[in-house]
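Case study: T-complex-associated testis-expressed protein 1.
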Amino acid sequence: MLEVKEDTEGSPPSKGLSPVVPLSPKPKSPIELKKPSLDVIPVESASENRIGDWRNMRRIIAEDPEWSLATVPLLNELVIKHIVKNFENKSEVLKDLLTKDQKKVLAQISTDLPLKVTALLVDDEGFWERCCHARWELCDVSSFGNSWKRMYFERNLQQIIELFVPEASDSDELDDTVMLSANFIKKLDIRQLLPPVPQKSKGPDFDEISEAASDAGDDSESDHFNFGPVLKKLSFLEEFHVTYGVRDCGMNFEWSLFQFTARDCLQLSECIAALPNLKVFRLHRSKMDDDKVRVFISHILDHPGLIELDLSHNIIGDRGARAIGKFLNNHSKLVKLNLCNNQIRVAGAQAIAYALTKNNLLQYLNLRLNRMGDEGGQAITRALMKNRTLVEVNLSSNDLVEPTAAILNQVLSQNLVLRYLDLSCNRLGPDGGKQLQEGMEENKTILHIDLRLTEVGQEAEYCINQILRRNQEADREQRIKDSEEINAQYRKKTAEPQAAHRFQLPTTAILA
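Here is what the predicted structure looks like once written out:
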């Protein structure tokens, strides 16, 4: 019987023996056919090698305890972080970024960056809003044309000027700020001005002398901040308010802190005259007297753009009122004049009244809290019979009595332009109330009359209020009618149909 042996693969058959018949290979099953060869390392399935499966991951103790493989930042985020960190030294790279990346950078940069970096480069309102809220608690952007950038620059310059001490503060910071802010400032409201630091003399009784001088109000005058170098660079300035005084001085009160000197007046007048784009100027609570107002008016007689002048709460008398009347008679473009709380008497009221008969632009006049008396009140009211532009007049607290009310009777029956009249805190009396009532019965344009503390009587005041309601209702109906006519004309011009999102009513439209 032959012995059958299984020869190794590739070895030759032995001599003297019959050839070995190889056994037929056992057929492989389909499962075995799919198995990999012995020299291939099997790969674990994807379900067993998931990154998020913590059971199959090695434990790594990193130096950063917050590090995680699942939160690796994107390269874009790393670049933005680097730009934000070095923005002060490499700010010019902002212009090369995409819009979406610029917004990310501007949302993260610090609000403490110097103005020389951000003033001319950053226009994003979100960044300037963060700067405003970081610096001031109360931020009313509606008072600054709804622009956060304008608000920041105007309030920043205002604060620097209000804390500037002449001959002591560093002017380099002021000059740099003005240069960077000039294109963004349209309104400047200066609520205080600090005087120079007084030179203390070395005397044994200096304290007693200074206290006596302060009580007597005989302190030597000292000039305040000079606006000349600042205002001439603010070419877009349209509104300027200033008060020569110190806020919250406390126990350090001295009369010199509230002096508006002749040199201050001359410098300020020259600055206002050199601002052709200025429209509103307000100088209040600054002790402006007759001499100073005459100097001021002489410089602005031919001002091309001033439409509102506010000199309230000063000490302007009759001579100053004559200068203001001359200004109204000249080529002025004033629309609003406020002389509230001054010392204008009969002569000054007559000068202003004469100017009103010649002026054809002024619409608002405030003479409240003066000392015109009944004679001055009669002069003003007679001027209203000839003037055809004044819409609002305030004559409250001027010691007006019944004769002025008699002239107002004629004014109310003839003047078709006047809308608002304030006569409060005048002793018009019951007879004066009857005169006003008779005039109002023929008037259809007056919308408001203030008769508080005038002693006109309840009956007359009630009848006048009923007439005012009638006039107000008629005015409302007329405005609705005018609006409908304007809307009809607008629709005729738009022949082609428009999409609903593109259709816009005119600005004068009124929806009832």
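For the exam, be able to explain this: Confidence is low (pLDDT under 50) at residues 1-24, 30-41, 202-219.
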